[in-house]
Design brief:
The protein is an alpha/beta fold. The protein has twelve helices and eight strands. Helix 6 packs parallel to helix 8 and helix 8 runs parallel beside helix 9. Bound molecules: 3-methyl-2-oxobutanoic acid. The site of 3-methyl-2-oxobutanoic acid (KIV) has 11 residues, from strand 6.
């Protein structure tokens, strides 16, 4: 008698045939040399699901489980309503779907601002529940103490300055930052404060090019731009934006595909074939009855 083992692992659960060695936070930080130069620009994309992580992972150094999932996945109006539970669930999926990239998970609004201790509790939960290597939090000088507190306690932090979408209610919109001299100086000071507090990298979002260049030249850690400048040490985009999944995207986004149109066409073809099916007649089902 033979014994059969049922293989319950579906092909969807086993992504790449040969697991690679995962990059580490110190290696990302070291991509910007002591001379302030980055030999090869750092590639980061957002991912919210295991399958997308599987597809992007071989091409990136960093995968960001951004709180932009609020709008992209959940159809929320902003990132403000995003919860720690959402970030943990999607973060764990992205870690499961990746082998190579450092996975960074956004701390959602309300999970870290009150105090460094509050931030530590949230960040520790994120790392424990997801297996990710780092968190990202928005804010400059006001968050420097928190960045230092987490970094000193074993939690790598990626900073995020310039346009900080969680502060949309204070900013009044998503326009580019740093247009006035005072605002430009504040963003530069924010980047310096977060870098000196121990951030291993900093996202510069929606800032004018002069500010992005000045910050990149000034801080020791890599800067990752989005709507900032190609002079940053790295680049991040929301994956669904660069894939063309939405009709409207920020002006700075380069589209590498037109998935919205392609998905629409595939769904239309499918629907057409289903509707063209002829149901069998009773005679065909019960011949001679
Ligand atoms: O949430 C996100 O996707 C982000 C990127 C825009 C940097 O923070």
């Amino acid at each position: 008698m033979s014994t059969f083992t049922i293989d319950t692992a579906t092909s969807r659960a086993t992504p790449t045939p040969a697991p690679m060695r995962r990059l580490t936070v110190p290696r990302i930080k070291a991509m910007k040399g002591a001379d302030g130069k980055t030999a090869q620009p750092i590639v980061m994309l957002t991912a919210y699901t295991a399958r997308m992580a599987q597809l992007l992972d071989p091409h990136c150094e960093l995968l960001l489980v951004g709180d932009s999932l609020g709008q992209v996945i959940y159809g929320l109006p902003s990132t403000v309503p995003v919860t720690l539970e959402m970030m943990c669930a999607h973060g764990a999926a992205v870690v499961r779907g990746s082998y190579h990239s450092v996975v960074v998970i956004d701390m959602p609004f309300g999970a870290y601002e009150a105090s460094p201790e509050h931030a530590f509790a949230s960040a520790a939960r994120i790392l424990k529940e997801t297996g990710a290597a780092a968190v990202k939090l928005e804010g400059g000088s006001a968050m420097a103490e928190t960045v230092a507190f987490l970094s000193a306690r074993g939690i790598p932090v990626m900073g995020h300055v310039g346009l900080t979408p969680q502060a949309v209610n204070m900013l009044g919109g998503y326009g580019a930052r740093g247009k006035s001299e005072a605002e430009a100086a504040k963003i530069l000071a924010d980047a310096v404060a977060v870098a000196e507090a121990g951030a291993f990298a900093i996202v510069l979002e929606g800032v004018i090019e002069e500010v992005a260049i000045a910050a990149t030249k000034t801080v020791a850690c890599p800067t990752i731009g989005i709507g900032a400048s190609s002079q940053c040490d790295g680049q991040v985009l929301v994956t669904e934006d660069m894939l063309g999944l939405f009709e409207r995207t920020p002006r700075f986004v380069k589209r590498y595909d037109d998935l919205a149109a392609r998905i629409g066409a595939a769904a239309e073809a499918y629907a057409g074939e289903v509707r063209a099916r002829a149901f069998p007649t009773d005679e065909q089902i019960y011949p001679g009855k």
